[in-house]
Design a protein that fits this description.
Strand order of the largest sheet: 3-2-1-4-5
Strand content: 5-15%
Number of strands: 5
Order of helices and strands: EHHEHHEHEHEHHH
Number of helices: 9
Shape: globular
Structural class: alpha/beta
Helix content: 40-55%
CATH superfamily of the domain at 5-115: 5'-nuclease
């Protein structure tokens, strides 16, 4: 069963593209949106690996915020528009990885999920069979996740952790 509406920030989009798992969003959520600022961030450099995959997936999921963006003084433009769009469309989840921005969003009562949480749920639902190979791709491609955190998740999901 799908879990409502999600607004995605830039970081998780790149992380899911790196591991070729953007389709998990379609499997887990009824609707997926990104604000214009996130669209600009993910499309600003056509030489970025996975550019075509990202633009093809999100081109029809872009929404304009209607309110004034008064959050840019505490978080970046994509993150702040994501929070505003979440509130405007009454989304169920905000997909965001940045620790500071996520903490601020949660202080506003926003229901946040990160890339690692999304992958963990995907494994629970049988949408992916193993997390470790995906985590290895993150580390190889310099996606900034703590190895300690990755190991906690791997142990919790019954997988072999990385050597410390």
């Amino acid at each position: 069963m799908k879990s409502g509406v999600v607004v995605a920030d830039t970081g998780p989009i790149f992380s899911l593209a790196v591991i070729d798992k953007l389709e998990l969003l379609n499997s887990l959520f009824e609707k997926i949106y990104i604000p214009e600022a996130v669209w600009k961030e993910v499309t600003q450099n056509e030489s970025v690996p996975f550019y075509n995959i990202i633009t093809a997936f999100f081109y029809n999921k872009v929404e304009k915020i209607h309110g004034f963006n008064d959050l840019t003084f505490v978080m970046d433009h994509g993150e702040s528009e994501s929070v505003i769009l979440y509130k405007e469309i009454k989304a169920d989840y905000l997909l965001i990885d940045d620790k500071k921005a996520r903490s601020l969003a949660e202080n506003f009562g926003i229901n946040c999920i990160g890339t690692l949480g999304l992958l963990s749920i995907s494994k629970d639902k049988g949408l992916i069979t193993s997390l470790k190979p995906l985590f290895e791709i993150f580390l190889t491609n310099k996606r900034y996740y703590s190895v300690d955190l990755l190991n906690i998740i791997l142990k919790h999901k019954g997988e072999e952790p990385f050597n410390s």
